[in-house]
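Final report, Chapter 2: Outcomes

The project's central promise was a pipeline that accepts a single protein chain and returns its three-dimensional structure in a standardized token representation, suitable for archiving and comparison. That pipeline is now operational. To close this chapter, we reproduce one record exactly as it appears in the project archive, with the input sequence first and the structure output second.
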Amino acid sequence: MKRVVLSLVMFASVLAVSAQPRAIGGRLNYGVEVSYQHGFGEANMLQLDLGIPFFNGIQLSGVYDWIFPISSWKEEGSWNWYAGVGGSLGMYGYSKSSAFFVGAAGMIGVEYNFKFPLQLSLDFRPAVGPAFGRDEAGNSWSRFNVDGLLPWWNIGLGIRYKF
């Protein structure tokens, strides 16, 4: 009986997850990122981005966004703006120095969804938090890290396939 109930719960969760709108693609800013969006109804989404900032490290960001339709723009597709909060962590290194950072991230952006399954977005995602590392001489350091706080530094262009 337990196996039947567990199987029904797993089947229902697979159906619930597959019924949600999703998008996968890329995001270009001060590096290259693989981007995944998972919708929770019409008004919320989770965006996960895994990227290579400055092509010398790796960064993972996750942001929970609230979506607000822009109904006054009459186009063939649909326009939305979104804002959210989340977190970011990563590592980077130059020659013999390296660092690890973790922080809180915020995001604000606008997206256009074509009538066919393609989405374009333009957003700003800064992150703030501590960073820890070693310099080229091997000395440890720590500081408060501000990643992408200047708008021109962290504006991202997203191109995603919706499924």
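Archive annotation: The helical segments are 2-18.
This record, like all others produced under the grant, will remain available to the consortium after the project formally closes.
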